[in-house]
Specification:
By secondary structure, this protein is mostly helical. It has 16 helices and no strands. The protein folds into four domains: 35 residues, no CATH class; 80 residues; 92 residues; 189 residues, no CATH class. Helix content is 79%, strand content 0%. The longest helix is centred in the last third of the chain and has 34 residues. The radius of gyration is 26 Å and the shape is globular.
C-alpha cells in the first residue's frame, strides 16, 4: 500500500474520532502525488457485467425459479462483499469495479425477477430504484464511476419510458436533475458539470418526446441551462453550462436551417398553438437579463440572440438563422482577437467553420452533383481552415513578441 492510500485509510479513522476535519485531510493528501489510476478494471467490470447479463438472459428460460434467484442474489452479494473488501485493503480501483458489477447486476435482477413472476410495468419504477441504489453507493464510496453510472441509469430510464410508453417520469427526472445535480455542485468537478449538462439535455428531449412537443422547445431548455450558468457561483459550472447551452442552441439553429420550412408548413398557426412557449421564453430571458443588471455581469449580451424565435418571420426564417450563426461566430472570433483570448478565438473559428459547412450543405445540396458537392465542400473548408489558422498564428506570434 502506498503512502497516499495509507493516509486515505487512516485519515478516515482520524476524521471519525474528530482529530481532523475533511478539509485538513484533503490538504494533507494534496501533498502526496496521486498515481495515475488504471481504468482497465472499470472497463473490464462493464464488459463482465454485460457478459453476465447476456449469458443469464439467453439461458434464463432453462433455469428453475430457485436457481434464478440464487444466481441473482449470489452474484449481487458476492461482488459487493469482495469489492468493499478490496477497497478496505487499498485496491480502490479494482474494488470499485467489482461494486459496479454488483450495481449492474442489481438492475438486471429487477427486470429478470419481474419477468420471472410476470410483473408488467408501464413506467420507470425499476430505473428509479436502480438509480437510487447507484446514488446510495456513491454516497457511501464517492467515486466518478458510480456518479456516471447513476446518470447512465437515469438517462436510460427516461429514454425507455418516453420511447416505449410515451410517458415522462417526473420522479426519475427529479433524481437526474435534482439529486444528481446536488452531487454535481457538491463535487464541483468540470467533468461532472459537462456530464450533468448532457444528461439535463437528454432529460429535456425525453420530455418533448413524451408530450409530443415540437423541437423549438429545446430553445427554452437551453435558455434555462444558460440561466443556471449565470446564477451559479462556481466558475467551472458556469463554463460547462454556458458552453453546452450555446452549443445546444446553435444545434437548434442548424435544425431550423434545414427543417424550418416543414415546421412552418405543418404548424402554420404556431404562434397561437405555442403561446406558452413564448411566455416561458420571455420570462426566462427577463430573469437572466435582470440578474445580469443586478450583479453587473459583463458577459456577452449577444448570447441572447441565439435564443430569438426567428421562425416567426416565416419562409425567410431559415436564412435569418443562418445569418445569425455566421454573425455570432464572427462576433466571438473578433472579440477573441480584441481580448487576446486564444480559447475564444478557437471557439469562434470552430463555430465559423461549422456555420460555413451548414450554409454550403443547405445551398449546394440540390444544385451540384453529389461528387462535386463533397469535393467542392472539402476544398472550401480546407481554404477557410488555412486562412483562419494563418490569421491565428500571426496573432499568437505578435502576442508573444509583444510580451518579450
Amino acid at each position: 500500500m502506498n503512502e497516499r492510500k495509507w493516509l486515505e485509510k487512516e485519515g478516515s479513522k482520524w476524521m471519525e474520532k474528530g482529530m481532523i476535519e475533511r478539509e485538513q485531510l484533503e490538504g494533507i493528501l494534496s501533498l502526496y502525488e496521486k498515481k495515475n489510476k488504471n481504468l482497465l478494471p472499470i472497463l473490464g467490470s462493464i464488459l463482465i457485467g454485460l457478459g453476465v447479463l447476456t449469458f443469464v438472459a439467453s439461458n434464463w428460460s432453462n433455469m428453475s425459479d430457485v436457481f434464478r434467484l440464487t444466481i441473482i442474489c449470489g452474484a449481487l452479494i458476492g461482488f459487493q462483499l469482495i469489492g468493499f473488501h478490496l477497497v478496505e485493503k487499498g485496491s480502490r480501483t479494482l474494488g470499485t469495479a467489482l461494486i459496479g458489477i454488483g450495481i449492474i447486476i442489481f438492475g438486471a435482477g429487477i427486470f429478470l425477477t419481474a419477468q420471472m413472476f410476470h410483473i408488467v410495468s408501464y413506467n420507470a419504477a425499476a430505473f428509479i430504484f436502480w438509480m437510487l441504489v447507484a446514488l446510495l453507493f456513491y454516497m457511501m464510496l464517492p467515486n466518478k464511476y458510480f456518479y456516471l453510472l447513476s446518470l447512465v441509469i437515469g438517462t436510460a430510464g427516461l429514454l425507455y419510458s418516453a420511447l416505449s410508453f410515451q410517458v415522462f417520469s417526473f420522479s426519475l427526472a427529479f433524481l437526474v436533475v435534482v439529486a444528481a445535480g446536488y452531487v454535481t455542485f457538491k463535487e464541483d468537478h468540470p467533468l461532472f458539470y459537462y456530464f450533468y449538462s448532457i444528461t439535463y439535455t437528454i432529460t429535456g428531449i425525453t420530455f418533448l418526446v413524451a408530450y409530443d412537443l415540437t423541437y423549438i422547445w429545446m430553445t427554452v431548455i437551453f435558455l434555462l441551462l444558460y440561466g443556471i450558468s449565470e446564477w451559479t457561483r462556481s466558475e467551472k459550472g458556469q463554463l460547462a453550462f454556458k458552453n453546452i447551452s450555446i452549443l445546444g442552441s446553435l444545434a437548434v439553429i442548424f435544425v431550423h436551417v434545414f427543417f424550418l420550412g416543414e415546421l412552418i408548413h405543418y404548424e402554420e398557426d404556431i404562434l397561437s398553438n405555442d403561446l406558452l412557449y413564448f411566455i416561458i421564453l420571455i420570462g426566462i430571458g427577463a430573469l437572466i437579463g435582470w440578474n445580469k443588471i443586478r450583479r453587473n455581469i459583463q458577459s456577452n449580451w449577444v448570447d441572447f440572440a441565439l435564443f430569438l424565435p426567428l421562425f416567426l418571420f416565416g419562409d425567410i426564417g431559415d436564412v435569418l438563422y443562418l445569418l445569425l450563426a455566421f454573425g455570432y461566430s464572427l462576433f466571438i472570433l473578433i472579440q477573441g482577437y480584441q481580448l487576446e483570448e486564444s480559447d475564444r478565438i478557437n471557439r469562434g473559428t470552430f463555430l465559423f467553420l461549422i456555420s460555413t459547412l451548414v450554409a454550403y450543405i443547405q445551398l449546394a445540396w440540390n444544385f451540384l452533383p453529389k461528387s462535386m458537392f463533397f469535393l467542392a465542400g472539402g476544398i472550401l473548408l480546407f481554404i477557410l481552415s488555412w486562412l483562419l489558422e494563418r490569421r491565428r498564428r500571426k496573432w499568437v506570434h505578435k502576442t508573444k513578441g509583444g510580451q518579450s
